[in-house]
């Protein structure tokens, strides 16, 4: 087993001598593993037993409302907060007790945290200076990374002379130039206006794909999480409710919280009939079980997104009466009163719209809905 | 008049008007006559009115006496114009020594306050508001006691039979002379002046984004490097302000140096005092006082210019 210091030296030599290329995925760094990580703050357990593991090069998002423990988790990964239990590993090395300045993590803060008394070049060079990179090499790398984030020509400016978006890019450059094991992004887009936010996040994703640094994003914006992530960990009250790809998180939520937090959902109570089907208000409907399939007769809740509901004149599915239809531009909203309560469907704009009062069937593909034991 | 104004305002604007409009016209009508005069007074005049008491006090009690002082310093005892007082002061090695010693004590007090006050301010920054209030009270407590009583307290503490001497003797160390020298004056002055250093420093430290240090740590900077490269330079404005206040207050302080310094440590304010009250040479007292004002102001200006250049506009912008 290597000691901490030798690992440090190894890292230092990597970052100074060679420009890393993510050619061989197997050799890529940046596998983060959290095992039962806990944090107690002010007598309250804000993070309880969080487990997760990233693939090298993965873009993973911690998504949840404020106070759910996502930022605390990120700060424990960065080392700014000590864990009260559990294990934090990077590429197989335990870093749980390693102080932040000996971890190799590039972090971008919500406030950008650029050093106001230094130029952009000095800000970006700070990490290299700490790694004792010689001046000429330092200048070259700073220039390179500033060009990469589209800030060439801004090197001599001070942070306050830059716009919010430019400061954001500078903070990103500062985090990336040290070629970190992990890139940690703490709500980095939330201080930007809506248009810029979308543009910048697209750029960040493109950049991340290109350089292949494992990235952990913390956000409360579900649309952002869906748009950028390889996988999303939905957090609430200090625990991960679901960790999966965006499509699965959206279409097959595992818990009420996940279902409600991300977009609109139809939650229907029913009884499991075994074999991936269940009975809701007397009708057999299909849904994919999240985790172990529920035993026959168990009470389940079925989560169906409005987008996946099809309205048909007849056929298998949940029968009901059309209560309301509304043209919303991109979608047509159709509310059907069924035996299990109202079901909302968001139909494509060119769909055949049923008349109000018409008897219809609500149907969906079993793979587009989830059911969870209640 | 006020009643009429109120009635008028109420009748014109009606009951549905904003809560301010009816009663608001009353006091205004009282002062200026026209009922509709609300808001007609230029904004700058209102602002000036707010500052007026302070401006009057400064003009009457500071600027005017300062001119009198300067004028007096160029007079002989009989009232004739002369440069003699300044020639006498600058020509006398004794007085030049006193000036030098005054500046030295002020500078050492400033450094002492900085060295003791900075860690204290850093400690205070991380505390809860409740703890901070108590610490601030502790810091300000020396200012709540009369300067004379406080200085006599130090006489007891530092005296040959005081606790400091007792502790040193107990450890087998022969207690050094603690009273009636520069050390005694320094201890007494730092005690009083600490608050003037810590409070502006706190203001400066509070304005530093709390994520800057974690950001620096994440980039590989150990704690000390974070302090030297981030916290210290960003708190320069507070240090500058604190140092200016402490330096100028110490250079012109009289009671504490007079009591704790005894007959050996003589600073400028002491000579202003003796020339004015014992020798009754008011013009010379005025000249000594003015020399102190000019030298202190000059040093502070130079110092702030130097810091400004050293840290660039970023710190002050």
From TrEMBL, chain A:
Keyword Transport included in the entry's annotation: yes
A GO CC annotation given for this chain: ATP-binding cassette (ABC) transporter complex
Biased segments, Basic and acidic residues type: 1-12
EC primary class: translocase
Superkingdom field: Bacteria
Enzyme Commission number, as recorded: 7.6.2.9
A GO term, aspect molecular function: ABC-type quaternary ammonium compound transporting activity
Keywords recorded for this protein, A-Z: ATP-binding, Nucleotide-binding, Transport
Organism field: Nonomuraea diastatica
ABC transporter domain: residues covered: 32-262
UniProt-recorded name of the protein: ABC-type quaternary amine transporter
Transmembrane intervals: none
Gene3D superfamilies: 2.40.50.100, P-loop containing nucleotide triphosphate hydrolases
Residue ranges of the region described as Disordered: 1-28
InterPro entries from the UniProt entry: AAA+_ATPase (IPR003593), ABC_SmlMolc_Importer (IPR050093), ABC_transporter-like_ATP-bd (IPR003439), ABC_transporter-like_CS (IPR017871), Mo/tungstate-bd_C_term_dom (IPR008995), P-loop_NTPase (IPR027417), Transp-assoc_OB_typ2 (IPR013611)
């Amino acid at each position: 087993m290597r000691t901490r210091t030798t690992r440090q030296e190894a890292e230092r030599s990597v970052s100074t001598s060679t420009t890393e290329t993510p050619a061989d995925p197997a050799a890529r760094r940046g596998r983060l593993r959290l095992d039962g990580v806990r944090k107690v703050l002010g007598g309250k357990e804000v993070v309880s037993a969080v487990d997760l593991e990233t693939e090298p090069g993965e873009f993973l998002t911690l998504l949840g409302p404020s106070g759910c423990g996502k930022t605390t988790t990120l700060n424990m990964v960065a080392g700014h907060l000590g864990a009260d239990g559990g294990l934090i590993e990077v590429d197989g090395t335990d870093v749980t007790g390693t102080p932040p300045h000996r971890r190799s993590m590039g972090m971008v803060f919500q406030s950008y945290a650029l050093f106001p008394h230094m130029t952009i070049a000095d800000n970006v060079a700070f990490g290299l200076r700490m790694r004792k990179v010689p001046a000429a090499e330092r200048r070259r790398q700073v220039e390179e990374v500033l060009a990469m984030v589209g800030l060439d020509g801004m090197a001599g400016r001070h942070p306050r002379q830059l716009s919010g978006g430019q400061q954001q890019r500078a903070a990103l450059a500062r985090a990336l130039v040290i070629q970190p094991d992990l890139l940690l992004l703490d709500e980095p887009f939330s201080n930007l206006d809506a248009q810029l936010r979308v543009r910048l996040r697209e750029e960040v994703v493109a950049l991340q794909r290109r350089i292949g640094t494992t990235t952990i994003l913390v956000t409360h914006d579900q649309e952002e999480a869906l748009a950028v992530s390889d996988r999303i960990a939905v957090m609430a009250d200090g625990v991960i409710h679901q960790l999966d790809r965006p499509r699965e998180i959206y279409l097959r939520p595992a818990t009420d919280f996940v279902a409600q937090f991300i977009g609109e959902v139809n939650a229907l109570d029913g009884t499991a009939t075994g074999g991936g089907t269940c009975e809701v208000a007397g009708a057999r409907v299909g849904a994919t079980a999240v985790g172990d399939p529920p035993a026959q007769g168990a009470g389940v809740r079925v989560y169906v997104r409005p987008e996946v509901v099809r309205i048909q004149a007849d056929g298998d599915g949940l029968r009901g009466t059309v209560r309301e239809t509304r043209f919303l531009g991109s979608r047509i909203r159709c509310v059907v009163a069924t035996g299990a309560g109202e079901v909302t469907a968001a139909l494509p704009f060119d769909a055949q719209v049923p008349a109000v009062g018409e008897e219809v069937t609500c149907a969906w593909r079993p793979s587009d809905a989830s059911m969870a034991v209640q | 008049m006020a009643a009429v104004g109120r009635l008028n305002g109420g009748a014109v604007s009606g009951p549905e008007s904003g809560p301010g409009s009816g009663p608001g016209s009353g006091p205004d009508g009282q002062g200026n006559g026209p009922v509709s005069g609300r808001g007609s007074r230029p904004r700058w005049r209102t602002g000036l009115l707010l500052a007026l008491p302070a401006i009057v006090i400064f003009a009457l009690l500071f600027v005017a006496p300062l001119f009198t002082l300067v004028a007096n310093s160029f007079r002989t005892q009989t009232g004739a114009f002369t440069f003699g007082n300044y020639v006498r002061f600058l020509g006398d090695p004794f007085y030049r020594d006193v000036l030098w010693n005054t500046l030295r004590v002020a500078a050492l007090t400033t450094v002492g306050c900085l060295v003791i006050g900075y860690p204290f301010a850093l400690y205070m920054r991380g505390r809860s508001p409740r703890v901070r209030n108590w610490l601030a009270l502790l810091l300000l407590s020396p200012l709540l006691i009369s300067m004379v009583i406080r200085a006599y307290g130090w006489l007891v503490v530092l005296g040959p039979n005081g606790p400091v001497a007792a502790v040193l003797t107990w450890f087998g160390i022969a207690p050094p002379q603690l009273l009636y020298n520069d050390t005694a004056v320094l201890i007494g002055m730092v005690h009083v002046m600490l608050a003037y250093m810590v409070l502006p420093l706190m203001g400066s430290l509070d304005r530093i984004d709390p994520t800057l240090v974690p950001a620096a740590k994440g980039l590989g900077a150990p704690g000390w490097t974070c302090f030297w490269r981030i916290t210290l330079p960003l708190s320069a404005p507070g240090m500058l302000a604190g140092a200016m206040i402490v330096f100028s207050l110490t250079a012109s302080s009289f009671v504490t140096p007079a009591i704790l310094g005894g007959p050996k440590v003589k600073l400028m304010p002491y000579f202003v005092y003796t020339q004015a009250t014992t020798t009754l040479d008011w013009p010379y007292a005025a000249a000594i006082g003015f020399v102190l004002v000019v030298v202190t102001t000059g040093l502070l200006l130079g110092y702030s210019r130097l810091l400004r250049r050293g840290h660039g506009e970023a710190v002050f912008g």
